[in-house]
Amino acid sequence: MAKSFRGGVHPDDRKRYTASKPIEVAPIPEKVIIPVRQHIGAPCSPTVKVGDLVKKGQVIAEAQAFVSSPIHASTSGKVVEIAEYPHPVFGSCTSIVIESDGQDEWVEGLPLQRDWKILETAEIKEIIRQTGMVGMGGATFPTHVKMAPPAEKPIHTFILNAAECEPFLTADHRVMLEQSERIVTGMQIAMKVLGVNKGYIGIEENKPDAITVMNKTCTGIAGIEVIPLQTKYPQGAEKTLIGVICGTDVPSGGLPMDVGVVVQNVGTVVAIANAVEKGIPLIERVTTVTGGAIVEPKNLLLRIGTTFAQAVALCGGFTEVPAKVIMGGPMMGMAQRTLDVPIIKGTSGILALSQADVNIGPERPCIRCGRCVDACPMGLVPSMLSIVGERGLFQVAKEEYNLLDCVECGSCVYVCPAKRNIVHYIKLSKAQNAAVAAKK
Amino acid sequence: MSAEAKIDVGSLTVSASPHIRCDESITKIMWSVNGALAPAALFSVYQFGLPAITNILICIIAAVATEYLILKWQDKPMVVSDGSAFLTGLLLAMNIPATVPWYIPLVGSVAAIGIAKHTMGGLGYNIFNPALVGRAFLLASWPILMTTWPNMASKVDGVTSATPLGILKLQGYDKLVQVFGDKSDMYTNMFLGTRSGSMGETSAILLILGGIYLIYRGYINWQVPVVMIATVGLLTFAFGGKAGLFTGDPILHMMSGGLILGAFYMATDMVTIPITIKGQIIFAVGAGALTVLIRLLGGYPEGVCYAILLMNCVTPLIDRVVKPVKYGARR
Prior knowledge:
The complex is a heterodimer.
Chain A: E1 24-25, E2 31-35, E3 45-46, E4 53-54, E5 59-62, E6 71-72, E7 77-87, E8 91-100, H1 121-130, H2 143-146, E9 157-162, H3 171-178, H4 180-194, E10 199-204, H5 208-218, E11 224-229, H6 238-246, E12 261-265, H7 266-278, E13 284-290, E14 298-303, H8 308-314, E15 324-327, E16 334-335, E17 349-353, H9 371-375, H10 382-390, H11 394-400, H12 411-415, H13 422-439
Parallel strand pairs in A: 1-14, 9-10, 9-12, 10-11, 13-17
Antiparallel strand pairs in A: 2-8, 3-5, 4-7, 5-6, 7-8, 13-14, 15-16, 15-17
Helix pairs in contact in A: 1-4, 3-5, 4-7, 10-13, 11-13
Chain B: H1 26-48, H2 50-74, H3 84-94, H4 103-118, H5 130-141, H6 164-171, H7 173-180, H8 183-192, H9 204-217, H10 223-239, H11 250-255, H12 259-266, H13 277-297, H14 304-321
Helix pairs in contact in B: 1-2, 1-3, 1-9, 2-3, 2-4, 3-4, 3-5, 4-5, 5-14, 6-7, 7-8, 9-12, 10-12, 10-13, 13-14
């Protein structure tokens, strides 16, 4: 019996469009637009100027703070512009535009050969920082920060989040099928850095082939166990996943490290393995380009800085004018206003939804049907959060309705018959509370 | 870049996540409830004939028209086709005797939609079940017309026009059994609906079938009708008999009056009951207990309407106290 949690929803996963399609290596774009901020934390400062020639893997923007992550050139060529460009998460951001020379030449010394087993923990942590590792599931939290918990928070368990519970997305699924050994190596490296000897791989049951492959690859490796999970959204939300696999809940307002757990995404551990063994920085990633409005959905290995428009063109373009273009999955992804935004380190998917996929409808008053309460994996009352948020009672939302415990998984909105934009009101309330706190 | 990829960026919708939603809607829910009530409504037409048809139609048309005019007047989105006003009209019709003159359903529907629903802000904001407010309004205004039921084509023929509960209240249990012949005849008549009562109160079996459909669709929680009816059964068995404790007739009480109708269709009205399942069970116990209190000790033979309205009052209180246990506080 697969493990599960209370609440959640069962949207049609629609992974069938791309689940059986092998990862396709995309051609090098003529031009890449690389934002200096692709992570949670401080933006980087460019270390190159217009006219410079750069090589693949070269640092082009350096981190200025601990919670930040350096940026590397994703191909070789000439820096033609450093300017504000549209950004898929932050609206707009200083970006370094590189015109490719078509050579795709590595910076000197890369790729190299290294045995992670003989490296010191501190060395590995520094490699992870220098190679620009961030959480590739979408949150883009700098990996080196996550891998260096304070001494008073001992870590005993590592969880590989391979649930991929977002509908449509199959990037992690394909990586598991095609690069399972890299995953296990990356996981072993992460476990060594954290000093833990218990690692779990949580995979939703809608990927039986991935469960089989991972089980096979893990055979004979001590301390790593594959955990099949019930197919239910948001099985892969960090807090839900920890609750399901470890049987302990992360305390309200706390982090996974408070219960001795570190969670990493499939893409991230593969990137860690490549960084530590070969010195390769994070300059490309697997992205699922899919949705009802895409002619030929695919799993693509794309260079960071490739625009959404280029990626869509590689998949045959649109079948119709899309209603929405999303970065990430349909439940937590971010709607885009333009296709000129680039692929960044956290772009797990590009989703072009057709009019039929999007069921917006006019927003109606809450009829208190209670479906959101049943669906909420965090045990909140989303209907009330939407009502108090709509009325501007942001403090009430925080103090009486546990606003800050919401993980914005969107299950409540998915089930709402009144088509209420509950997550919108929750984000608004959180931002307003943060603004008030900042003033004090 | 291919030509297809160049699109008018102005056409992209930007909104907060999530970007997909299930195909459930208020309209679907409301029309499903209407559908669930339809067999019982048709049965009342078969049972009571032309007066039933006229009064059901007057109720529904008046409710829908009132909502239409109010929305027009207030310049609100025209949502009258969502079926909620239709449902209020239909529920009110089920709650009144078939023989009342035409102006009674008219006034009742106007009161239900105009006062109980739209003075509160419309769908979703009303504290009280609109149909029940309409019924209470009518009962207070025309107490005699509202408690005069047509004679039935059954063994009750010619004896009285009171409901079984009315007979029970005024003439006692033995008299009631005598009216029907014997106990098993009484139960059969109650179950099939061949007895006097308001239009929608009579056929237990059709109401239950409709309710089961709503449970199957996930629109109501089975716990609410079951707990409310069980509470009535238990309490009437314990305190309803003249010969002392535990001599009451729970089956009679569970099948009579508007209990089945109220328990399946009005104590489950999502707008006016607690939002958590625990809260709903408390609500159901309360509504059941108040029903018994009114039936056994009050002046009215029947108490479901007032019991549910009284519990509607405490719904916000229940919601305040009974909240789901949040993640992180469970273990």
